[in-house]
Each structure stands twice: as structure tokens, then as C-alpha cells.
Inverse folding.
């Protein structure tokens, strides 16, 4: 897992070719890669919001607020949104494949999204300090690059349709990601007004 993590971040174009040949079942990628790495933002969120605390208010009037309950809820949101985000994103990419001359293959689509999520998994450590949680979102930009680069080898997307395939998939996934985050927030924070910036969206 560590070797794959390093290679996909440092030399993605070469690593995508290796991943494509594996054609690993999505359940295997889920249990050996996604589920363990999704614990990084989840545990960091628990520590950050449950033990260290988040600043509430402005300037001299701001105070630190932390509670174990808050930490647990944030950890659940991070973990569930990561797992569901990968599955939903993979489903979207796979279902749109034939519209752009690509090849439908759920296992390959899942691997594509799972490994493209790597920067967000790793950067999830920033949730340990809630004030730096926005850096985890910035890491998602590199994840988008990984997703774009992987579309051709993983889904066999034609070069002339790759950009359009990527943009359409991205728009759909963003909408799904926002809806997913709103649903999770409504369930776990029915009386709390946290902004959308506190949560990890899908790719």
C-alpha cells in the first residue's frame, strides 16, 4: 500500500499503466487501500474536533470548542463521505463511459477514483488542526489531475474526448458530493450550523 501511495503521487502516468494491468476487483481495492487510508482524515478529525477543538467566534472573542461527541460525528462524516464518495464517483464515471467512447468497467473505474483520492487521504491529516482543514481540500486539486491522467489508461477514453469526459464526470460528482455532505450533515448535525467548508467533498 505504501509503495502504491508513493508511486501514484510521484509518478502517476507510469503507475496508472501498472494499475490498469492489475484490473483488481473493487472490493479488494476497497479493503486494502480505501478503507485503511480513509482512517487518516477520520482519526485526525476526531482528534481535531474532539480533543484539540475548533475556534468559535472572531478575534479576542473567539473561544476553543471541543467535545468527544463532536469529534465522533466529524470522524463518521469524514469516513463515510470518503467511502461513499469513491463508490458514487466510480459509478458516475463508469455509467458515462460509453457516451464518450470509453470502455465500461466498474472495477477499473473504482480503482481510478480510489487512487485519485490518495492526495485527499494523505492530506486528511490536516484535520488534526481544524483551522488547517482547508488544506485537505486543496490537496483535492492534485487528485483531479490524477483522475484526468488516469482516464485514458483505465477507462480507454479517446484522447479527443478525454477532457469532455472528465469535465462532465466532475460536474456530476461535485453535485453528488454536495448532496451527500448535506445529507450526512443533516443526519449527524440536525441542530448545528456548520458550514460546508468543514467537510470533505468527493472528487
Amino acid at each position: 500500500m505504501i509503495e502504491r501511495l508513493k508511486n501514484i503521487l510521484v509518478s502517476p502516468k507510469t503507475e496508472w499503466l501498472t494499475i490498469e494491468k492489475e484490473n483488481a476487483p473493487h472490493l479488494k481495492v476497497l479493503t486494502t487501500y480505501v478503507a485503511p487510508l480513509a482512517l487518516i482524515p477520520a482519526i485526525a478529525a476526531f482528534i481535531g474536533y474532539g480533543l484539540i477543538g475548533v475556534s468559535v467566534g472572531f478575534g479576542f472573542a473567539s473561544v476553543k470548542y471541543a467535545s468527544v461527541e463532536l469529534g465522533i460525528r466529524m470522524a463518521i462524516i469524514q469516513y463515510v463521505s470518503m467511502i461513499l464518495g469513491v463508490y458514487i464517483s466510480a459509478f458516475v464515471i463508469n455509467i458515462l463511459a460509453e457516451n464518450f467512447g470509453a470502455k465500461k468497467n466498474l472495477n477499473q473505474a473504482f480503482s481510478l477514483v480510489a487512487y485519485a483520492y490518495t492526495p485527499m487521504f494523505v492530506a486528511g491529516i490536516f484535520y488534526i488542526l481544524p483551522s488547517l482543514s482547508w488544506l485537505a481540500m486543496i490537496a483535492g486539486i492534485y487528485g483531479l489531475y490524477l483522475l484526468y491522467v488516469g482516464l485514458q489508461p483505465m477507462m480507454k477514453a479517446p484522447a479527443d474526448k478525454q477532457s469532455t469526459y472528465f469535465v462532465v464526470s466532475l460536474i456530476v460528482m461535485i453535485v453528488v458530493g454536495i448532496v451527500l455532505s448535506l445529507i450526512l450533515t443533516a443526519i449527524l448535525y440536525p441542530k448545528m450550523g456548520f458550514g460546508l467548508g468543514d467537510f470533505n467533498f468527493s472528487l
Q: What stands out?
A: The chain has one domain: 2-57+64-198. The chain has nine helices and two strands.
